[in-house]
Amino acid sequence: MCLAYAGSGTFTVEGEVHEIVSHPEAGLGIAFWGFALDTTALPEGPGWWDGLLRRERPLVSPRLGSLPAIVSALAAEAASPRSGVDAQVRALGSALVIETGRAFASPAELTVTVDPGARATSAVAAMRGYLADNLARPIRVEDVAAVAHLSDRHAARLFGQETGTPMIAELRRLRLEHAARLLESERPVAQVARECSYPESRPFITAFRALGGTLHL
């Protein structure tokens, strides 16, 4: 594969012979890469890889996509290796192969069906997991939204739509259910309150009783 990223010139292919003629004034900048595509590992049906497998595919594609950025990122990693370089190069290499295939695939081969419900479910699951893992510390809506990479408003609306409960109400319920389990171990009420992000016992007791809990003080 060859990406012309600067200057001008011609690139002629005759059989196995490639000839590159660079413009005498505006030198032609080219990046080359190659890979072996394991077709046995590809799913059945059309996909990004079809543009690489069809014999009638075009030899030149103007659809660069993110290829220039990926090649530049790989060059930067090679120029200055840092911790994590192996994982980074593998990820960028995979992206390079996929984006190369996309450059030669047809629009029909690139079409996918996205289930909005599945995406929403995944985001809400991430938010609920964050709530459950942080019962002892103060939590803001923006903290929870950041986990799902959503705006505060969108996160709160999505959470309420899918769970039927406002985010803060769900957090309060999780904390008080956690408190009920802690109280079974006969820990002091003040300690349980702190472990459920209540700095003082009185608001904790009020909230716990409002949820139907019983405290023996």
Automatic annotation (TrEMBL):
Keyword set, alphabetical order: DNA-binding, Transcription, Transcription regulation
UniProt key word Glycosyltransferase: no
SMART domains per the UniProt record, alphabetical: HTH_ARAC (SM00342)
UniProt cross-references to InterPro entries, sorted A to Z: AraC_XylS_family_regulators (IPR050204), Homeodomain-like_sf (IPR009057), HTH_AraC (IPR018060)
Cross-referenced Pfam families: HTH_18
Matching Gene3D superfamilies: Homeodomain-like
Domain HTH araC/xylS-type: 125-217
Top-level lineage group: Bacteria
Protein name per UniProt: Helix-turn-helix transcriptional regulator
Protein's organism: Brachybacterium rhamnosum
